[in-house]
Design a protein that fits this description.
The chain is mainly beta. It has one domain. Helices cover 12% and strands 43% of the residues. Strands 2-3-6-12-13-14-1-15 form an eight-stranded antiparallel sheet, covered by helices on one side. Strands 8-7-11-10-9 form a five-stranded antiparallel sheet. The chain has a two-stranded antiparallel sheet with strand order 4-5. The longest helix has 8 residues, at 10-17.
């Protein structure tokens, strides 16, 4: 799937992320350690390369270390045992998102939850925290008219220390010339 990119300022990024306020966490699941995924909003069956799965209107994908903080302590996180994670992660399901925001200093993603806890990314290495927010429901983000007839999945992510809006799309219905005028295309699609 070809992709193209639009660099964002931190203010633009946080403004775009405001769509998540009020959405509920519908599903939480893990993949390769330390990754964790939160499906937000209505669940629907979605076909992927690996089969069919339930996806929310938005998928929050954290690929770096993460933790859940209580108001005055760390509750649990990616370095805890799998048994503890299996017991505590389901407690995030059903909570509403109060705010989804990026810290412009550390580039960490913070998810403020309705029960007062905060899910946050971090990294113990010199690299940046790795996170991506896939937006499956196109009505949640204002999209340029160039995407009107294109099967596109926008995502907001941190890339090399800068937030960006990435568009993964089906090039069968895309006008690549028009896209090149608006966006930086990946090498595969240019």
């Amino acid at each position: 799937m070809p992709t193209c990119y639009e660099r964002l300022t931190f203010d633009q990024c946080n403004s775009l992320l405001s769509f998540a306020a009020g959405m509920k966490t519908s599903r939480v699941w893990q993949s390769v350690e330390p990754s964790v995924f939160l499906e937000l909003g209505r669940l629907a069956r979605k076909k992927t390369r690996l089969g069919t799965r339930s996806a929310g209107q938005t998928t929050l994908m954290i690929e770096s270390d993460w933790r859940v903080d209580k108001p005055q302590s760390i509750h649990f996180g990616s370095s805890f045992s799998q048994g503890v994670l299996d017991r505590l992660l389901p407690g995030l399901v059903g909570l509403s998102i109060c705010a989804l925001e990026v810290d412009c200093g550390t580039h960490e993603l913070r998810v403020r939850l309705s029960d007062g806890r905060v899910l946050r990314t971090f990294t113990e290495w010199a690299s940046q925290p790795r996170w991506t927010i896939l937006v499956h429901d196109r009505t949640l983000l204002p999209l340029d008219p160039v995407w009107k007839k294109v099967d596109v999945t926008p995502c907001i992510r941190m890339s090399r220390g800068h937030p960006e809006l990435e568009y993964g799309f089906d090039e069968a219905h895309a006008d690549l010339a028009a896209l090149k005028q608006h966006y930086r295309l990946s090498p595969r699609s240019s």
